[in-house]
Amino acid sequence: MDYHKISKEILQLVGGEENVQSVIHCMTRLRFNLYDNAKADRSGLEQTEGVMGTNISGGQFQIIVGNDVPKVYQALMESSGLSHESANKTSKQKKNVLSAVFDVISGVFTPILPAIAGAGMIKGLVALAVTFGWLLEKSQTHSILTAVGDGAFYFLPLLLAVSAARKFRCNPYVAAAVAGAILHPDLTALLGAGKSISFIGLPVTAATYSSTVIPILLAIWLMSYVEKGIDRITPSSLKLIAVPMLTLVIVVPVTLITVGPLGAILGNYLSVGVNDLFNHAGIAAMILLAGTFSLIIMTGMHYALVPIMINNIAQNGHDYILPAMFLANMGQAGASFAVFLKSKNKTFKSLAFTTGITALMGITEPAMYGVNMRLKKPFAAALIGGAAGGAFYGVTGVASYIVGGNAGLPSIPVFIGPTFLYALIGLFVSFAAGIAAALLIGFEDVQSERDKASEAPGVTAGGEIIHSPIKGEVKALSEVNDSVFSGGMMGKGFAILPEEGAAVSPVEGRVTAVFKTKHAIGITSTRGAEVLIHIGLDTVRLDGRHFEMHVKEGDTVAPGDLLITFDIDEIKAAGFDVITPVIITNTDQYSFTDVKKSGMVKPNEALLALS
C-alpha cells in the first residue's frame, strides 16, 4: 500500500492543506479539525484506497483508516506542511457547548493514550505475576515495576497539562510547571496534614491532585486566558520573564483556592454518580451500555469517556465503562467471524477473518466498517452480542481495576480482581452471541467478480465485469463525435457524459499507460482486459491543464481507486467536449454483453460484461 499516495489523496479530498486547521490520529482514525467541513468530499474519501469510512462528530472530521493509520498519518506529515498542533486561526464552524467539550476531551486525551495504555498494561501484568506467584510482592523488582506502571497515573496531571496546553494554545512547559507545583511533595504533605491552610489570608481547600483529571484541565483552561492577557499588556523586552512568572503566580494559587477543589468535587460526584447507577440499575445499565457502545465508537467519542474511567478507578478502585467497551468489541468480532463462516466470497471471507482477529485484539473499526456495517445485519448482531455479555456482567458485577491497553484480549489483565473469572466468561458470551445472532439473522453475501460475471446475461463464469469509472450518463460509442471512437477503430466499449470531474478504476489491475497530457490512462486488468479511459475529445491539446493524475505507471489499482480528477467547467470553457469513451482495446479477445446501455450511473456500477 502506497501511504504517501493515500495521504495525498486524503489531503486533497478534505479540501486541501488550506482547509486543515489541525490533524491528529488515534488508534484507527485521522482526526481533522477543518475550517469548513462542507469542503470535504466524503463520497470521494470513502472510495479512496485504505479508507473504511468517514464521520463527523463534535465538529471534528474523522477518516477511519484502521490499523495503518500511524503510517498514513506519518506520510501525511512528511508530504505536507501540516502540524498536529492547531494553527493560529479560528475555525469558521461554530460548535455547540457539548460538541466543544467532547472535542476538547478527545483532543487532550488522544495524544497521551499510548502512555497511559502502556503503563496500565504494566500494572496489569505485575498484578498477574503476583497472583500466579511469579513475582514477590515486596521484592525490589516489584517496587520498580510498580513505579513504572504507576508513574503515568500518579503524574497524570503533568501529561494532561502538556496536552491541554496544546489544545488551549498556551505554553506547554509553563502548563507542566503548574502541574508540577500542585504535585510538589511539600504541598501534597501540607494539604494532607488535616490542618487549616491559607494563602495570603484566603482559605485553601485540602485536595489530592495526583491521578486526577478535572482539576488540571480547568487549571490549564484558566491559564490559557491568564497567559494571553498578561502577554498583551507586557512590553516585548519583559515577555520572556514576566509572562511565565506572573502566569504561575496567578494560576497556581487560584487553582489551589478555587479551580482545583471545584474540579476534585466534580470528579468525586461524577464517580459517585456512575457507581450509583451501576449499583442500583446494574443489569439494565450494563446491557444498555454494552449493547450501544459500538455506536459510541462510531462517533469517535469513546475517547471522551477515558477521563471518567480514570476518575472512577482513582475514586472507587474500579470502573464499569471499560468492561462494556470490551463486550461491544467481542460482539463485533463474533459477528465478523460469523460472516467468515458463512460467506462464499473467498476475498470477503478472508477480510472477515482478519478483521475479526483485529477486533479480538481491541481494534474494531476494520470489522465494523469493512464487514458488519457493510452487510448491515451483522452489525445489528454485534450489538446483540454486546448486550448479551452486558447482561452477564450486570448480574455478576464485573468491573475493571486498571485503565490500560485496547479493549481486547491482550488487555485482559485490567480485569484482575475478584470478578476476573466472570470477566473471561462474559467476553466469551459476547463473542459467541455475536456469532449466533449473525448466523440466525443472516445476511446478503458480497458477490465476487466471478459471481457477477456469471450472472450477467450471456456471460460465462470466466468473464469479467467492466464498471463505470465516472458518475454521469451512459452513451453508446456511436454517439461520440469522433470517428475514431464511434467507428470502433480502437475497440468496443461505452462512453460517459461526466457529471463529476473524477475518474476511478473500472477494474482490478495495473496501470500500463499514463499520458503526459493527463487526459487518458490505460489499465490492464488482472484477467487481461486492456482498458483505455479517454477524458474528453481532442483534450490532448490542453497539454495537461485542468487535469490531475493520481496514479503512475506500474501502480496496482482496484475498482473505485481514484485515477484522474479534472475540471469539467474549465475544459468546456476551453471549447472541448467532455464526453469520455471507455474502450477495451483488445476487443478481439472477447465477446461483449451490455449490462446497462443508458441512463445515469455512479462509479463502480457494472456497465459491460466480457466473456
What features would you describe in this structure?
It is found in: Cell membrane. Its main location: membrane. Keywords: Cell membrane, Kinase, Membrane, Phosphotransferase system, Sugar transport, Transferase, Transmembrane, Transmembrane helix, Transport. One of its GO terms (cellular component) is plasma membrane. It is a multi-pass membrane protein. This protein is α+β, with helices and mostly antiparallel strands and 611 residues long. It folds into four domains: 3-94, Gyrase A, domain 2, CATH 3.30.1360.60; 103-274, no CATH class; 281-441; 463-610, Glucose Permease (Domain IIA), CATH 2.70.70. Helices cover 50% and strands 14% of the residues. The protein is built from 20 helices and 20 strands. It has helices spanning 3-13, 42-46, 69-78, 97-131, 140-154, 156-168, 172-182, 185-191, 214-233, 239-280, 282-299, 306-316, 321-342, 346-360, 365-375, 377-396, 420-441, 449-455, 483-486, 568-573; strands at 20-25, 29-34, 53-57, 60-64, 198-199, 202-203, 464-467, 472-475, 492-498, 502-504, 509-514, 520-525, 530-534, 547-549, 556-557, 562-566, 580-584, 592-594, 599-601, 606-610. The protein has an eight-stranded antiparallel β-sheet, with no helix packed on it. It has a four-stranded antiparallel β-sheet with strand order 1-2-4-3, with helices on both faces. A three-stranded antiparallel β-sheet has the order 7-20-18, with helices on one face. Strand 1 and strand 2 (29-34) form a beta hairpin. The longest helix is centred in the middle third of the chain and has 42 residues, at 239-280. The chain is globular, with a radius of gyration of 29 Å. Residues 85-93 and 453-462 have low confidence and may be disordered.
